[in-house]
Design brief:
By secondary structure, the protein is mostly helical. It is built from seven helices and two strands, in the order H-H-H-H-H-E-E-H-H. Helix 1 (3-16) crosses helix 2 (22-34). The N and C termini lie far apart (59 Å).
């Protein structure tokens, strides 16, 4: 199977399972499987996947379709430009978790500076 076909098939599969952002998830898992960047996926759509790569990609898609967070599958989560190693013991907040919703609604006014929030003994 070629990269382009594998990606299209994965997107359809994830859409059928109602996985959020199926295109992003399919690309992420394929990049993880091949250990490549996004540009490689689109620069080499004709590349044939080996049977081992197809098997590993299929397993990753099955896990994601069952609801496992992509971060647990890949073992990584990017946050503010840093790459963190994660496993199922690490809490992955959902996009609209109550804490994130609270922080979005109650964001600090722009006029506040970090030094004003720091206790005087630590400034």
């Amino acid at each position: 199977m070629r990269l382009k076909e594998a990606l299209a098939s994965a997107v359809r599969r994830l859409m059928e399972q109602q996985v959020p952002s199926p295109q992003m998830n399919a690309e992420l898992l394929l990049r993880f499987t091949l250990d490549c960047d996004r540009a490689y996926l689109y620069a080499h759509p004709e590349r044939e996947l080996t049977s081992d790569e197809q098997s590993r990609y299929g397993e990753a898609l099955t896990q994601r379709a069952s609801g496992m967070p992509a971060q647990y599958i890949t073992g990584h989560q990017e946050f503010w430009g840093l790459d963190f190693i994660v496993n199922p013991a690490v809490l992955i907040p959902l996009r609209n978790s109550p804490l994130q919703e609270f922080m979005r609604r109650k964001s600090l006014p722009q006029r506040w500076k970090l030094r004003e929030l720091t206790p005087p003994a630590t400034s």
